[in-house]
Amino acid sequence: MRFVLPITCIVTFCIVTVMVVDAVMPLGIMMGMFMKDDSTPIAVRLLLLVPFLVILVPSLIKHTVTRSILTGFGAFLLIGLWVFAMTFLVVYPMPDTRVSYALPAITSIPFILAVTAAMTHNVRNVFSWSRKTLV
Q1: What whole-number distance in Å separates Cα of residue 28 and Cα of residue 25?
Q2: Whose CB has fewer CB within 10 Å in the chain, the N or C terminal residue?
Q3: Strands (E), the chain
């Protein structure tokens, strides 16, 4: 479970699809294209990578509570990036875009379930650790 939930959160984030002009694109491909774009400032590229790193790097930490807290924080950052993407690509799309609200909603369900599972697992780890110290 150390690597499974963070990788599942990242993969399900990348498969959420949105409409871009006349094409249907997953967020993972859009992020890759955005990272390769030369007009994007390096600071913005690094800031967009932070949620992925914050959810993945704690998997290398041995201490369970620290790993759970940092992974939960990374999950919240990934949710923030998802809300940002949904706001600018679905709620306020580019002109001449025929927005399909059902497609992002349906493809977001696995992401929401993965993040919920990760957060439930992390909260359970934190609370079980606090019970062990009280005994």
Answers
A1: 8
A2: C
A3: 17-20, 23-26
Residue 25: closest CA among 93, 78, 76: 93
Residue 114: which of 67, 82, 92, 69 has the closest Cα? 82
| Contact between 16 and 108 (Cβ < 8 Å) | yes
Buried b (16+ CB within 10 A) or exposed e, 33-48: eeeeeeeeeeeeeeee
Q: Which amino acid, residue 135?
A: V
Task: Give the separation between CA 42 and CA 87, rounded to whole angstroms.
Answer: 23
Which H or E element spans position 76?
helix 64-86
For the chain, the C-alpha Rg in angstroms (whole number) is 17
CA dihedral 103, 112, 73, 37 (to 10 degrees): -20
pLDDT digits (tens, 9 = 90+) for 80-128: 999 998 888 777 766 666 667 788 889 999 999 999 999 999 999 888 8
